[in-house]
Design a protein that fits this description.
Elements lengths: L20 H11 L8 H28 L7 H10 L3 H29 L5 H20 L10
């Protein structure tokens, strides 16, 4: 269903859609020089613009997805939507972020495989974890000046 067709589901209304104000405020303050502040009204406007941009891109990506008879919006649909809407200058950075994301996913999978390939049973892994937790609790239970040197 494209965005221009009516919604029959009981999804959230546009008033319910937003971004975390604290996160956006932090992002804004990190981008601005230290001597510049951002009014709450301005932050709220930035949030509304971001939500509208997300809505625009996802609607266009949905249309592209439908044209390809796909049921899932893929990253390639987002990139095509950006190009179709005239945001070509964003695509290189989006592709870089996608590449980084895929690498992070691979790294997580390797970490999960490392646990599987450890040769330990789930019970042994749990016992090892409990051992580490106990050592950590013991370390932090001691007064600051009396910490034991690592073994």
């Amino acid at each position: 269903m494209s965005d221009r067709e009516g919604h029959s589901g009981a999804g959230p209304s546009d008033e319910d859609l937003s971004l975390p104000k604290a996160t956006v405020a932090k992002m804004i303050s990190e981008l601005l020089p230290a001597e510049v502040t951002c009014a709450k009204e301005t932050r709220d406007l930035v949030i509304e613009c971001c939500v509208e941009f997300i809505h625009l891109i996802s609607s266009e990506a949905n249309e592209i997805c439908e044209q390809e008879s796909k049921k899932t919006i893929a990253p390639e649909h987002i990139i095509a939507a950006l190009k179709r809407l005239g945001f070509d200058s964003f695509t290189a950075e989006v592709e870089d972020v996608l590449k980084d994301h895929k690498q992070q996913q691979k790294d997580r999978e390797k970490k999960a495989d490392k646990i599987k390939d450890s040769g330990l049973t789930p019970e042994e892994l749990m016992a090892k974890q409990e051992e580490l937790f106990a050592a950590s609790r013991a370390k932090f239970a001691q007064p600051q000046g009396q910490q034991q040197p690592p073994a």
